[in-house]
């Protein structure tokens, strides 16, 4: 993380100090940008963050931007500090963020240049041969566009189950061809990388059509996924669940008559929930059952939020 930087341009006695100059973080996570500011006299009436100007060249507050609606929070303290929090980060949020404040005095408008550069990235697992002489592979948990800020530690998953080790960015695989692998950064375990089949194309895998869904109370929602499993196993059943221990959602009284399962095509499954309530807000996961006691859960699942409005 970069050192604090104070920039004073054009107006003596005015400045904005950003806690960091650049941040790289994960898609779907939450970020907080912070700064402090000083001015000669008067009272500050307006404070906001922005990334672009309107047609007249005036900075537009993020809270007024449609793309940030419901995801931006401002916090101002009594010591001239100001925080910007952005939730559910998207790749399109990658930009330079600047702070602006307005005071009740002549030329009392100031923007802190150069701002904070935010980069939003995804995780992926890269697979490379460990040795030309051995049938092992090296897995690397990497980002697609920038290096994560700080010194993150990692969690690895085999067939959807987390490992207590390793916590490093790389993991050497000596396991059978049917196992699947993914990774996450500790503290953001709900943001897995896509699953890879390290030793071949036949492995356990669940891919959700959408990872986050926001719906209205009383409406109907479709939650769908596609999946694969080793051909040596024969599919015997599947269901959706929300609890830590997989139990078929359709067996719960509160979902009675409101849940329907559809296997649309081969290896594709959809759950339909009708007459949604705020209590239905949860993380929904798909569970696959096969012969030879084969069981696989697609983790993490789909976050469903009922707005109640």
Brief characterization of the structure:
By secondary structure, this protein is an all-beta fold. The chain has no helices and 27 strands.
Describe the structure.
With 309 residues, this protein is mainly beta. The chain has three domains: 5-120, Immunoglobulins (Immunoglobulin-like); 122-202, Immunoglobulin-like; 204-309, Immunoglobulin-like. The chain is 0% helix and 49% strand. The protein has no helices and 27 strands. The strands form six sheets. Strands 3, 5, 6, 9, 10 and 11 form a six-stranded mixed β-sheet that branches. Strands 1-2-4-8-7 form a five-stranded antiparallel β-sheet, with no helix packed on it. The chain is flat and about 80 Å long. It starts with a strand and ends with a strand.
Q: Could you tell me the number of beta strands? A: 27
Biggest beta sheet attributes: 6 strands, mixed
User: What is the H level of CATH, i.e. the homologous superfamily of the largest domain?
Assistant: Immunoglobulins
Overall 3D shape: flat
Number of helices: 0
**Any idea what the radius of gyration is?**
24 Å
Mean pLDDT: 88
Q: What portion of residues is helical?
A: under 10%
